[in-house]
Amino acid sequence: MSPVIVEIGPVQIRWYGLMYVVAIVVGLVLTHHEVKRRKLPLSLDDLLDFVLLTIPLAIVFARLYYVVFRWDYYGQNPGDIVKIWEGGLAIHGGLLGGALALWIFSKWKKVSFWQFADTIAPAVVLGQALGRFGNFMNGDAYGTPTDLPWGIVFPRNSPAGQAYPELHLHPSMLYEMVGDLLIFGLLWWLRTKPFKPGFLVSLYVVLYSALRFVVEFTRGDALCLLTGTACITGATTFLESLRTAQVVSVILILVFGWLIVSRRLWEQQPATASEAASTSTSES
After folding, report:
1. How many Å apart are CA 168 and CA 95, to the nearest integer?
2. Bridge-partner residues for 230, per DSSP?
3. 138 is in which domain, residue-wise?
4. In the chain, how many domains are there?
5. Using 50, 70 and 90 to split pLDDT, how confident is the model at 230?
């Protein structure tokens, strides 16, 4: 297990970066397929514009989110803020940046925010699954020590190996990867059904947040909400165990769960003849 795939002189190709590239390419292909099936007024060039808008915003917000909650470290080591190749991109921050990019894009291209959000939701969670494999090879987003037979000892030079040298750890990133793949499978199956706009993306947020809430119990690098430092293992008080990602996940579940219920987004709308024909073709 190594974060580096190949090294030629000063040039390194790392799993962390490669998986992000693969996620972008695969996501673009899936989204282009869905745009055509849904007959949205977007070309491939438009989707490339969306990618170019989303990538910097998602990375910046993902890093800022992480840095804010680890300011105890980064305030003393500001030069490390830019070292994103060492890990430290918070998914909740990345989703916030992606949502901003989606809003800007929908206004720019004059397309429905919720329809396009539903279109990209399966690709987003599949991209997260690929990213978690990058975390696994990098040794970050690691778990706590475990006696379970699938516990993994990470290399000493990895973030996990430095935090817990020579100990078997929960492969938390793989737990989340499997969960992401299951969510992707469900969203991909549901995508052809004529739910109200916003259902698929809201379901994605609720399911991913529930997954993250559960997986967070096994994370060895989880940040406490009040301190911004790693949560204390075996904490005896509620405040000691209050994890930032779990609090955010609960808020997202409540907000998007309320959105689904209040707008009855699960209700299916009658499909037009052209939409029905398109759906039939895509399922055949």
Report:
1. 31
2. 223
3. 4-283
4. 1
5. low
